[in-house]
Amino acid sequence: MALTADEIGVLFTQPGGDFLCARWARPIAPVAFGLADETLAVFRAALAAVAAHAGQPMTDTDPEMGANFMVFAVRDWEELGGLPDLDRLTGLADLPARLAAQSADRYRLLRFDAGGGIRACLSFLRLGGALGSAHPAVLAEDTGVNAMLSFARHVTPSAGIAALIRAAYDPALPACARDPSHALRLAARL
Question: What architecture (CATH level 2) is domain 25-148?
């Protein structure tokens, strides 16, 4: 069953009430840190499937940043403290302590280009908790789906979300929309 315009609007309405629906404006160049070697191929294949579903190209390197979709998998948030320049990379002071205080299992941070399209995504996964038993392909699909659009909160992959992602990547639509009426345009494409 297709999502309604109201349901779509909720997915992109930020906690402060602002609407933001942005998609990638450049090919995705993923890299994952902290995963076992045998799971890297599975993880990359699942990310590639999500991107292909949207019609969004993947590449080995981004000309400006090298990698523009970084996934950091850690057992506990304290491990992030060992990353050099994490504060500078994220723009957030003391991120590991904040995530630990929230008992978060995942965190996603998006960066946008001048036109408002997604330029980069940093995804952090805590595998020492509930995500530890997830199959790498399921975890990669979940991570990829949540990185494809500027969802206001975590979404669970489903047929409805997949259709929404496809609709949002329609070349006739802008890479970034801040007007809530954009939800009507997306719903019409479902």
Answer: 2-Layer Sandwich (3.30)
